Amino acid sequence: LLLSALGGGLGRPRRLGIPSPEGERRMTNAHLKVLHFDLESSLEARLNIGAFSKKGESYYGSIIDLVHRYNRSISDAELASTVLAECCDLELSKQYIPDTIWRLMLRDSGVSANRKIEDLTNDEIVKLNISLGKILYATRNSIVHAKSNYTPTGKECLNKDIGALNEFMKVFCYAIIMHNNNID
To answer: So which domain of life are we looking at (predicted)?
Structure first.
């Protein structure tokens, strides 16, 4: 459902199950709002240091760093991970992620399969979100570019799990909508 919205330009969205270009625009606007909110929060924290602090090269460099991180986060490859980190509670949505994808996420992020999700550190959650974002992006590309010269990366969702992944995407879309409503 959202696979195509995560990647930006789609070609023919109706073939992928997106109800309309208007629905796609709403999703695109929603995830851009998430990114803008994140950037604004980070900038506000940086700029609200106080009138008496010395603003040196490192201070301005940190602002430029924020802008570079924001620009990277809106690239197609990073977008899914950025939105996942901001909108999706991995602990609550894990039950909807297909097992094959979960195992791939654990392997890619170096997290032990024996650990409970509620015991993971923030760094491990970030790594899992990055891995899931890469899987979603690779799956999106494999669908959109299936008939062109697409080379599989090994991170794509298996065809047998697409239905289960779609269920996760419905939960993910709902989380994005709820997050978007909370930041308006």
So the answer is: Bacteria
Sequence-distant (6+) residues with CB within 8 A of 155 are 104, 108, 134, 135, 138, 139
Using only the alpha carbons of the chain, give its radius of gyration.
18
- Tens of pLDDT, residues 16-28: 333 444 444 444 5
Q: What is the DSSP string of 112-142?
A: -TTS-GGG--HHHHHHHHHHHHHHHHHHHHH
Model pTM score? 0.61
Q: What is the pLDDT of the chain when averaged over all its residues?
A: 75
Residue 23 has a CB neighbour count (10 Å cut-off) of 13
Residues 6+ apart with CB under 8 A from 168: 93, 96, 97, 98
